[in-house]
Design brief:
Layout lengths: L19 E3 L25 E4 L4 E4 L25 H4 L2 E7 L6 E7 L5 E7 L2 E2 L10 E6 L10 E2 L17 E8 L2 E6 L2 E2 L12 E3 L4 E7 L8 E10 L3 E13 L5 E6 L4 E4 L5 E4 L5 E7 L6 E7 L13 E7 L13 E11 L2 E12 L1 H13 L6
Antiparallel strand pairs: 1-13, 2-3, 4-5, 5-6, 6-7, 8-16, 9-12, 10-11, 11-14, 14-15, 15-24, 16-23, 17-18, 17-20, 19-22, 20-21, 21-24, 22-23
């Protein structure tokens, strides 16, 4: 499944982006991301080597990549739906007893997959789909969409992450709980489609000058199952036409009904029967919701458009939703079948970009009410 399914973008990445093949030595010439030296990258001062027999990523003194923690890649994803995380995850967990009746919201980020958000459990239900490293809750961006030189740096890792060994997970620099309610992570992203850039199952492709991470604060404004989610994307040169998922959210397939919600007017618009599409609240305050058909469970993403001080882009950016059914594989968080919602931002400036949306869970009515509360706090919740 493509990491960025949906509207097409045409974008370019000016300047020189460091990029490296993880594997044996290779050479690189001029490419769409800028001119790179046409010489071997085999020296210890430049090379990023990956030893698949050890199943670990190793940095060999590459200053551009930084001294990052080796990402363990040797585990095979279990598709049984029974405790898949135990097989291939090293989790950084954060749990908060919320002000909503003492209920606990528990999240976890996977150090083996770029420290992407791997789990969101509210009232005993796991919302996040982890079938491969293109899923989870994570940030990615794309340039030159639909072209041969399309670039897709992805927080969690590459498409070689389901049924492959070793798995290609993005190296995680850190995952730390900075307060009782806030977790911060940072990764050096892999290219989701390594073959496009000369990689393979044995040769992952690392965007060594790019960083993707997050800061997530639970029980935001005392609202219970609401998290302030800031996607952090650092690039060495501006990418003015990039399409950025801030973040993409892959969910349990039972959340198969989609809604757009305008928090200023309180209008809920069903997007059925469409299996994919886009929505943007007319007021600029609101979001997208995925829910079970009876509304007993729902997951929402709220944001504010950039013209009002938020991070969500105007149309054709905005919010999107997708349903990917698979009647053969629907069991548990590792199932192939999944639902997806996301917010999109257009363009990246040079350096660090901090892009914020708000995630929440509950019933459909509760998620609407939580978006109303964020709108009531719109001077701070942007």
């Amino acid at each position: 499944m493509s990491r960025l399914t949906g509207p097409l973008w045409t974008a370019s990445l000016p300047g020189v982006f460091g990029m490296a093949i993880l594997g044996s030595a290779c050479s690189m010439g001029a490419g769409p991301l800028g001119r790179l030296p046409n010489r071997s990258m085999s020296t210890a001062s430049e090379a990023v080597a990956w030893n698949p027999s050890l199943g670990e990523g190793h940095i060999l003194g590459a200053p551009r990549a930084g001294a990052f923690v080796a990402s363990t890649l040797r585990h095979i994803l279990s598709k049984s739906g029974a405790e898949p995380r135990a097989d291939h995850a090293s989790l950084a967990t954060l749990a908060v007893t919320t002000s909503r009746g003492g209920s606990r919201l528990v999240i976890a980020s996977n150090r083996n997959a770029g420290c992407a958000l791997w789990s969101w459990v509210w009232e005993g239900f796991e919302y996040v789909n982890v079938h491969d490293y293109g899923r989870q809750i994570q940030t990615a961006f794309v340039s030159d969409r639909g072209r041969a030189n399309e670039a897709n740096p992805t927080e969690a890792g590459s498409r070689f992450s389901t049924g492959f060994t070793p798995l290609q997970g993005s190296p995680c620099l850190y995952a730390v709980n900075r307060s009782p309610a806030t977790q911060a992570t940072l990764a050096v992203p892999l290219e989701y489609e390594p073959v496009r850039w000369g990689g393979s199952l044995a040769r992952a492709f690392l965007w060594r000058d790019v960083r993707i991470g997050k800061e997530i604060t639970l029980d935001y404004l005392g609202l219970g199952p609401v998290a302030r989610y800031t996607s952090i994307v650092t690039v060495p040169a501006a990418v003015p036409e990039a399409g950025v998922e801030i973040p993409s959210i892959y969910l349990h397939v039972s959340l198969s009904r989609f809604y757009g919600y305008d928090a200023a007017s309180g209008v809920l618009l069903s997007q059925e029967p469409a299996a994919e599409g886009g929505t943007l609240p007319p007021s600029g305050y609101g979001g997208v919701i995925a829910a079970t058909p009876d509304g007993a469970r729902a997951f929402g993403q709220y944001g504010v458009v950039d013209s009002l001080g938020g991070s969500v882009g105007h149309w054709p950016s905005g919010f999107s939703y997708f349903l990917f059914p698979d009647a053969r594989d629907t069991l548990g968080p590792a199932a192939n079948a999944t639902a997806k919602i996301r917010a999109l931002h257009a363009g990246l400036r040079q350096g660090e970009n901090r892009l914020t949306t708000y995630l929440m869970s509950g019933t459909l009515r509760e998620v609407q009410a939580l978006m109303d509360s964020l709108y009531a706090h719109r001077e701070v919740a942007r």
